[in-house]
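tool_call predict_complex ligand=adenosine-5'-triphosphate
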Amino acid sequence: MLRIVDIHTYYGNIQALKGVSIEVAEGEIITLIGANGAGKTTTLMSISGVVPPREGEIFFLNEPIHNQSPDRIVAMGISQAPEGRRIFPGLTVRENLDIGAFLRKDKDGIRKDLEYVFDLFPILAERRGQAGGTLSGGEQQMLAISRALMARPKLMLLDEPSLGLAPIIVERIFDIIRKINEEHGTTIFLVEQNANMALKLANRGYVMENGIITLVDSAARLAANEDVKKAYLGI
Ligand code: ATP
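tool_result ok
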């Protein structure tokens, strides 16, 4: 579904990605793990077209996307729930969700998807008229995931959904990510520092260090790998 081929991405003169290649098959949950500053967020930004790679190629469903605008990439079926949640704090829950569906014209589909996210996260239905900024951290993360879902993506990019949340909330959110994958068939690309949880959820994983991929394997084998255990699982 997604093929990233040897991308090099920069912020001005700073090279954040130094030849990254990743493949994601339809229906998979893959995770990209690594330390702070390794280049995980930059990888997602390269896919979504926000920080396009200077070299290399990215294909989505066999179409090149490394030269497309972010809104075109969303329209093709890729949406992102960014790190830090980045919801619109002054807009209501409902308005935040409407923004997720901004590029869609199918009113019936939008209504169904709204029901679907309210079903996944009933608390958001209760708080639909409330400003996003008044929600708790966990609820804001739920809203960010729901907003990404409202674009009806084929591929959903999730940037650190566990960040700053209590373990019980993280478990709930990860259960829902699994549900979205199983029930909706949405392919998931999960960036996480919480490698422990991410490797339990994912089918496969990539490990990133200093802008390059150092390991790729099934999630089960990565979780059993001694180097991964020492560096990322605290074992
Ligand atoms: P984190 O978990 O902290 O988000 P990460 O693995 O997602 O880390 P990136 O945010 O992709 O890492 O950062 C990769 C590198 O690019 C780092 O060296 C970082 O300092 C640098 N970087 C990221 N954003 C910018 C920016 N806007 N301008 C300049 N350098 C940046």
